[in-house]
Amino acid sequence: MAKRVAIIGAGVSGLASIKCCLEEGLEPTCFERSDDIGGLWQFTEHVEEGRASLYKSVVTNSSKEMSCYSDFPFPEDYPNFVPHDQFLEYLKMYANKFNLLKCIQFKTPISCMIQGKSFKLL
Ligand SMILES: Cc1cc2nc3c(=O)[nH]c(=O)nc-3n(C[C@H](O)[C@H](O)[C@H](O)COP(=O)(O)OP(=O)(O)OC[C@H]3O[C@@H](n4cnc5c(N)ncnc54)[C@H](O)[C@@H]3O)c2cc1C
């Protein structure tokens, strides 16, 4: 039976973690507190506690060649430095291409218990 793995957060790191687990024959479940993937790259007009936020005009400060997943380049027609909405679109393409959404449980914030006390994980 495949080993089960818990992954917290469906941002850039969580998505890559899910993919790696699947490639290794593991059974990942990713717990995401929001209702969508992308983490930081999900733009919102309002600031949310415990969450880094983007301003509307954010463009990556690393080039698309340096920022992409090694096995999934950005589309040719994307600019060299990618606006945040296209970055999110790219992450959605990645998740769809590798069928990652089936492993994500949305609206599921994870907290941890230490010596009987519950702590929120940011
Ligand atoms: C303004 C800004 C600009 C940036 N620009 C660049 C750039 O140009 N190039 C670059 O490479 N990097 C840039 N970064 C760095 C950026 O942090 C990374 O690109 C990337 O988004 C980090 O991904 P992550 O998955 O580690 O974290 P995040 O994107 O923060 O994702 C974390 C996810 O985990 C979820 N989560 C958190 N806690 C819990 C919990 N307790 N339970 C359940 N779910 C939880 C969140 O909802 C979120 O979806 C920038 C950062 C900022 C703030």
From TrEMBL:
Q: What is its EC number?
A: 1.-.-.-
UniProt-recorded Gene Ontology molecular function terms: flavin adenine dinucleotide binding; N,N-dimethylaniline monooxygenase activity; NADP binding
Q: What cofactor does this chain's UniProt record say it requires?
A: FAD
Q: Which Pfam families match?
A: FMO-like (PF00743)
KW Transmembrane (keyword) present: no
Q: Which UniProt keywords apply?
A: FAD, Flavoprotein, Monooxygenase, NADP, Oxidoreductase
Q: Which residues form the signal peptide?
A: none
Q: Which InterPro entries match?
A: FAD/NAD-bd_sf, Flavin_mOase, Flavin_mOase-like, FMO-like
Does the record bear Oxidoreductase in its keywords? Answer: yes
Family designation: Belongs to the FMO family.
Q: What is this protein called?
A: Flavin-containing monooxygenase
